[in-house]
Every structure is written in structure tokens, then in C-alpha cells.
Write a structure and sequence with these properties.
single chain; 302 residues; alpha+beta; Alpha-D-Glucose-1,6-Bisphosphate, Chain A, domain 4; Immunoglobulin-like; 2 domains; ten-stranded mixed β-sheet; four-stranded antiparallel β-sheet; 18 strands; globular
């Protein structure tokens, strides 16, 4: 399930104020009601005045993985469809800045006789020290209605905080599925949704985390990522820029024997690669500036 390859440069989008407001509202609830543990995830709900649906919260810890690695896996559409019971496919559709983008989710319904929902939204990654927060909020106008889906609205915050060698995940979610749904089914759906961090944790424990950039030159634009979980194949298409790219990969699960690196596209001409432990380094010359390059990682053959 590939992510869409977006334009070679960022597109205009004025969504920072909307995202800042969504972030503030996600952190507004104070009186959390304990819903118990589900799938190793502590779950809660809270109501804000004037809002019919509750905010949901799920908390868990994933061992031996950094916040950046968790974020990369959280953002990967193929991974999302594997662990999220409500997600059929997830695609980044527009990129406004390195950490701001729009996405579309074609959902699936884990509950019989309930139509699948879809979501069109924007998202932003906030960074403070070693803690990362991904904020998402629905937006109108970017993603046309799709036949066979009921458009849901979503507001969410995923906070990924280091705890020693582990990462604590805290998800806060406010969702309106829209359409007519019996209360009992809404409550069941809320219970599933609140435990989402636990499903993400279990996925990482089984499959590991996907590769991600930890260093890149100014001017590089990430245009899209594709992941094949069965074959542990990962590729990322970028608009190249002179300088050094550093990619971290999971050497304990996804790439136990190491990785093979293949560069393709016009921007790959003259670029040099090196692998050291769990890092891939790519150095691009000036002639690569502005050209498309795809970075392909696959398991090293024994």
C-alpha cells in the first residue's frame, strides 16, 4: 500500500492555527474516567462542555524503541493498516512543510453492519526536547467525498516521550463517526479506539520499526514512502539536495542481517552510500540538487 508520491516541492497550506487549536483542545480535558485496561493499554474518557462525544485516552509503553522510531512507524500507511482495526489504507496527500502534511484514511469497519468511515485531515509534528507530539485534525476542502464511505471527523494527539530506553505513548482522541449508529455500538467502537496505542505497541514488538531519516540537508523534500512488510522492503522518494542523508534502521527485527541500499532516479547520479551498524549514510553532490531520487532498503542476504 504505497503512500502517494507528492510534488517535488512543498505546497501552500495555512493550517498552523487550526492545528494549534486542535492541540490545545486535546489537552483541555482534566477529569479522566478510568475505563480499565484493554490489550495492555490503560484507557480513559473525559467530556468537555458542549461536546456530545467524549475524549478518549490510551496509554502504554513500548520497550527498547525511541520516540522517532515509533513516530516513523505510526506515520507509515502500510503499518497503520496492519495494526489499526479502523484503517483500510492511509495516504499522505499534500506536504506543506517538513513536519506538516495532509492525509486521507479509507477506513474499514471492525463491527458488522456498520458502514466504513473515511477521514480527510491535516497533521503537524511538534518537537520539544526528546518528546514528539503528532497532532491531527479534520479539514474540509482537500479530500472530496468518496462513494461507499461516511466521512468522520477526527481530532487527535499522539505524544511520544522517552522513558529510559523505552517510549511512553499517550494518545488523546475525539472522533465523530457521523451517521446513525446505535449507542451500544458507539461504546464498543470507543473501547477499540482507546486501545489503539496497545495495538501499535504489539505491532512494533512483532515486526519492529520502519527506517527513518535522522539527518538531511536543507532543501531535501520527502515526497513519499513505500513499505512491504512481508519482504521488509522500504523505499523513500525525495527531491535530492547536496549534502548528507542519515537513515536509521531496525537492526534487531526488520533488518537483523543488515541492509542492502540501492539508489535510483536522476538524483542518484554520483551519490555515495555507506552502512555502519544501524545507520545508512548517503552523500549527494551538487549536481543532484532538485532531482528526484528513490532510496531503497532491503534485507541483506546471508
Amino acid at each position: 500500500m504505497p503512500s502517494m508520491i507528492s510534488p517535488a516541492s512543498y505546497v501552500d497550506g495555512q493550517y498552523d492555527l487550526r492545528l494549534d487549536a486542535a492541540r490545545e483542545q486535546c489537552h483541555a480535558p482534566a477529569d479522566w474516567q478510568d475505563l480499565g485496561e484493554r490489550n495492555g493499554c490503560n484507557t480513559f474518557k473525559s467530556y468537555l462542555p458542549g461536546l456530545e462525544a467524549p475524549f478518549l485516552k490510551g496509554e502504554t509503553v513500548v520497550s527498547g524503541v525511541s520516540p522517532e522510531a515509533v513516530l516513523a512507524t505510526l506515520l507509515d500507511g502500510t503499518c497503520r493498516a496492519a495494526w489499526d482495526e479502523f484503517c483500510g489504507s492511509a495516504t499522505i496527500t499534500h506536504r506543506f512543510a517538513p513536519d506538516t502534511f495532509a492525509f486521507y484514511v479509507a477506513g474499514r469497519s471492525p463491527i458488522p453492519l456498520i458502514s466504513a468511515r473515511d477521514v480527510g485531515a491535516v497533521a503537524k509534528i511538534y518537537r520539544g526536547g526528546d518528546t514528539i507530539e503528532l497532532v491531527q485534525t479534520s479539514i474540509d476542502g482537500l479530500h472530496p467525498a468518496q462513494k461507499g464511505f461516511v466521512r468522520a471527523t477526527v481530532q487527535a494527539s499522539w505524544t511520544l516521550a522517552p522513558s529510559g530506553y523505552d517510549t511512553k505513548i499517550v494518545m488523546i482522541l475525539h472522533s465523530l463517526p457521523n451517521g446513525k449508529i446505535p449507542v451500544s455500538i458507539l461504546e464498543r467502537g470507543a473501547s477499540i479506539a482507546a486501545a489503539a496505542p496497545g495495538h501499535l505497541r504489539d505491532f512494533i514488538c512483532k515486526h519492529g520499526t520502519v527506517p527513518f531519516m535522522i539527518g538531511r540537508p536543507d532543501g531535501l523534500v520527502n515526497r513519499g514512502t513505500e513499505t512491504n512488510l512481508k519482504k521488509s522492503l522500504w523505499s523513500q522518494t525525495v527531491t535530492a539536495a547536496q549534502g548528507k542523508i542519515t537513515i536509521a534502521f531496525d537492526s534487531e527485527k526488520m533488518y537483523k542481517a543488515g541492509v542492502m541500499v540501492v539508489l535510483s532516479g536522476e538524483g542518484a547520479h554520483g551519490a555515495a552510500t555507506a552502512v555502519d551498524n544501524d545507520r545508512v549514510t548517503i552523500v549527494s553532490p551538487a549536481c543532484c540538487d532538485g532531482l528526484s531520487m528513490t532510496i531503497n532498503l532491503s534485507p541483506k542476504r546471508a
